[in-house]
Amino acid sequence: MSNFKSFHLDLTAGRTELHDALNLTGAEVSLNNLPAGVSIPFVHAHTNNEELYIVLSGEGVFFVDGEEFVVKAGDCVRVDPKGQRCLKAADGTALRYLCIQTRKDSLQGYTMTDGVMSEEFVKPSWLK
């Protein structure tokens, strides 16, 4: 059994979810493209999962619990599960963003506390 799976994203698709494509077990990740002036057509919240939105390009307006604020490339927004959210691309530009959904309070470690390095690991050609 392989310890990895890869998938090639169509960067122009409206929305691509990676859960099934990569057999993800700890997160849902999607790449989203909203054309200029287009909104997600609903407001939603979650029961258990927080979401992290990472704006890759363009500008838009983010709505959370009645508050609206501008987002642009480089902005990151974390929304609590109960946060009622929606997103719209600005009238003059498309909005491309990643959305990463994970169960709130489930992180057991992160790179600095979960990563393991060993001189005994097989190395790639550029580290030999």
Fill in the keyword field for this structure.
128 residues, mainly beta, 5-stranded antiparallel β-sheet, 3-stranded antiparallel β-sheet, 2 helices, 8 strands
Write structural notes for this entry.
The protein has 128 residues and is mainly beta. 6% of the residues lie in helices and 38% in strands. The chain is built from 2 helices and 8 strands. The strands form 2 sheets. It has a 5-stranded antiparallel beta sheet with strand order 1-2-8-3-6. Strand 4 and strand 5 (67-72) form a beta hairpin. The protein is globular and about 55 Å long.
Query: Rg, please?
Result: 18 Å
Helix content: under 10%
Mind summarizing the main beta sheet? 5 strands, antiparallel
Strand-residue fraction? 35-45%
Structural class: mainly beta
End-to-end distance = 26 Å
H/I helix tally? 2
| Strand tally | 8
Which residues form runs of ≥5 with pLDDT under 50? none
